[in-house]
Amino acid sequence: MSNWLDAVKWDADGLVPAIAQDYKTGRILMMAWMNREALTLTVQENRAIYYSRSRQQLWRKGESSGHVQQLHEVRLDCDADVITLQVEQIGGIACHTGRESCFYRVYQDGEWVSVDPVLKDPKDIY
């Protein structure tokens, strides 16, 4: 059996973008990076595990916040350079700002407008 990880086109830093989507609604919750270890552990542990470029280490989503992403499916795009994760967002908050999604700003009339509510104050999460 060939190594399924070899099919992924990793960038020069050994990373691939990973987009987390709500498995029921399809809403994009967040985007983060994965390395080979993060993707392997995500599949093994059945939860989203990313690679933090700023901390240079693995990041188990929800480790400090409790907002774990339970994995339902992993997909690789046609160019093999983007991963999507279909997840159940435990607690309903994916963003460190306390919102459901990191994509909460909409372009309107020349500016970015926040349109999604803060569900929980980040000071109460972290």
Task: Characterize the structure shown.
The protein is 11% helix and 36% strand. The chain is mostly beta strands and 126 residues long. The strands form 3 sheets. A 4-stranded mixed beta sheet has the order 2-1-6-5, covered by helices on one side. The chain has a two-stranded antiparallel ribbon with strand order 3-4. It has a two-stranded antiparallel ribbon with strand order 7-8. A hairpin with a 4-residue loop joins strand 3 and strand 4. The longest helix is centred in the N-terminal third of the chain and has 10 residues, at 36-45. The chain is globular, with a radius of gyration of 15 Å.
Main sheet characteristics = 4 strands, mixed
Q: Distance between the terminal alpha carbons, to the nearest Å? A: 43 Å
Query: What's the CATH class label?
Result: Alpha Beta
Rg (C-alpha, Å): 15 Å
Within the CATH hierarchy, at the fold level, what is the topology? Ubiquitin-like (UB roll)
N-to-C order of helices and strands: EEHEEEEEEH
Instruction: Using the alpha-carbon principal axes, give the shape.
Output: globular
The low-confidence runs, each spanning 5 or more residues with pLDDT under 50, are none
Give me the secondary-structure category.
mainly beta
Strand order of the largest sheet: 2-1-6-5
- CATH architect. name: Roll
Mean pLDDT: 95
Query: How many domains in all?
Result: 1
Total count of strands: 8
Helical content, roughly? 10-25%
Protein name: Phosphoribosyl-AMP cyclohydrolase
Subcellular location: Cytoplasm
Function: Catalyzes the hydrolysis of the adenine ring of phosphoribosyl-AMP.
Family: In the N-terminal section; belongs to the PRA-CH family.
